[in-house]
Amino acid sequence: MLSQLTVTFAFFALILVAVYWVNRAISLFDRLISDGQTAWVFLQFTALTLPNVILLVLPVAAFVATLYVTNRVISESEFVVMQSAGMSPYRLVRPALVFGLGVTLVMSILAHVLVPLSRVEIGRMQARVAQDVTAQLLTEGQFLHPADGVTLYIREITERGELRDILLADQSSEKVDVLYLADRALVVRAEEGPQLVMFDGMSQTLRLPDQRLSTVAFKDFSYDLSGFLEEGGIGRPDLRFLPTSELLAASPASRAATGKSRAAFLTEAHSRIAQPFLGLSLAVIGASALLLGGFSRFGVTRQILVAVFAVIALQLLNNLAVDAATTDETMWPTLYMPPIVGLLFALGVLWLAARPALFVRRSADAAPAPEAAP
Fold first, then answer.
1. Which of 29, 33, 36 lies closest to 137, judged by CA?
2. TM segments (predicted)?
3. Which domain holds residue 191?
């Protein structure tokens, strides 16, 4: 049964990852290509999102796999034979328990190692894309509007990156409108951000209150472009980039660098620790719930519904725990409640499955009493 669980789990995980990844990739593709990025950059971004996608879908894949395999084993009467041989429900669910521990191990590696590393690399790529002014702003032969009240036109961009025949209209101020014209320009990186350095041009400034126009010729003039860049990848580091040990420490220096509270640090750290155990609890729930009520030729539809509703309740509990831990740093233990409650639920179901007489007695009590003979 363990081998069947592994193969089925891999199949469902592949399908769920593909569906989720494609949905994310479509929006990412539109955003990157519209910003002038290449297909290679898109492939790098989508590949780096895979660890987090896999981490999200593995518990669901484990649950579906245990439901599918256990249902098939029950329908083929294998469980009936094993129960007749004296195996208890606890022994029958042991393969699912071992399988769930394997899923937990894989999820732990993802949560503590691969996902943080991929997020760090995504942050670096976002910084490079945000700094790529040519890709975001500079397109020859088109009137561009990089910000409200700002219009930019470039007739030609040479192979060396030199801009020819520049028009830059800045109407972002309520008091003055400024028009810059230049024969050529270069984009220069500086400490305060990228600068558009224009050569051999002039500026026309219109003072709106009195409608006075002034013209100034210049040999070179710098215009700050940093305000036009997309946010993301620049500024404070994201706490999701940090290793779990640093999150647990939540030092004042780390909190100051990220601008996040101690509660946010502890929530992220303990979520990484607790989340993998959801894979274990969901796998055990999927297997144990189908043992409830014994074998029936009518199938296990009710047991499947019980398992599904239990998983939904665990997800709601997990959301509540995250909200509580985020607002109060002393509430981080609540993050461990969903997997613990899930395992306790599975134990309770197995306890009931080990006592089929309860269901027989309930059926007997519900049956109508036979009529007395005349």
1. 36
2. 48-71, 92-115, 273-292, 304-322, 334-354
3. 138-224
